[in-house]
Please model this.
Amino acid sequence: MQPDPGPRQIVTPFRPIPLDVPEGMEPNEFFNSTENLSDLAGNNGLLVNPEDLLLYRKALGHSTTFDCSIIYNTSKSILNPLGRPVRRTQVPPAVRRIWNRMNAVIIGYMLEHWPDPEQALVLAGEASLDATWPLTAPGVPSIRMLHNHFMVFPMPALRAAALADPANPNLTDGGQHSLFHAYMRDVYREFFEQALKLTLLRPVSGDASRLALTGYPQGLPCWEVVGGADALSDSRFWDEYDAILKGFLDFYRSFFSQVSTRNADPLPDLHFPDAVQRVLLPNNAFMGTARTLRERCMRDAAYAHAIRWEPAFKQLIYRNGPGPHGGRLLVTISQNSIGNAITELLGVVVKRVPDADAYARFEPALIDHLLAVRERLIAADLGEPVTTAPWAEQRPAT
Model:
């Protein structure tokens, strides 16, 4: 019997990591340092290439089935953390081409080894790492470099997991998500329709975009990947994937420019200036919601302090099975982000617990998969192995 839909909380063990933070530094300050990124590559690195893209295993991971990331490691070439690229649109085209190919190889591997949506949730996505929180908040801005995640969760484990608290702010994206969804949903979707000319991404909504088990994502625009996994090897797909991000950035930045300054002129560096002029600025819901936030900021210091003035988002590729509409490959983007994990856009809350013995039981199979996907990347001339970590010197068993 299918359990009732609802967000799930899954428990993931990890091996505690000794963190030697220099005296006088906070952990989040250390995470931005070149020294920390050197440690990341040395202890958890899998593959690196001349474009400074580093594939590594997630030591504090979300999943023990398959879990790795690629980071655009500019820590040695851009020492100022606030000057580093934090979204795909800021990455040089030559780097982005390699990044796209790496994405296609890794996602293809996951779909090949976990082909049944009844048995596995497959997802990959990128996170904005702008210093968009108040800089005095703990843990901010974390590692300020663009990175993405690749994960697989066993569906039986998700079905058996406890229900998560649906009021968890990370599941709802907080109050600003509600503003987007409650007051600007129609103009948000209309803007995407007017601004974007897509052929490999087709808008979908309702049950066709949700995971039947969790009922998520909720209120987010979604697009089906026409052609499925094969489309990920087509450069046009990644152009359209970037176009969705550009549309989101234009909407978000235009909205908060109106919150900041009544009747502000259009921003000078928009990706879709015509759509902003035609769809957003004349729209009463868009401008009226900006007024509501502006007035609240003027009277509520705590609310104004919490505003994310710069765009913050998660962009996700996922398979939406199981269910009657299952097995489709989909793209979504969050309307705002308060620091939630990309899994939480799909209603999956990960509770990490330190348990070295439990992690050790999963580690051999996990490492085999990571080494196997590394071999595919090497064969495609997408990088060379990092072998400074003893576990990474193995050869894949499969």
Notes: The chain has one domain: 8-393. The mean pLDDT is 87. Residues 8-393 form one domain.
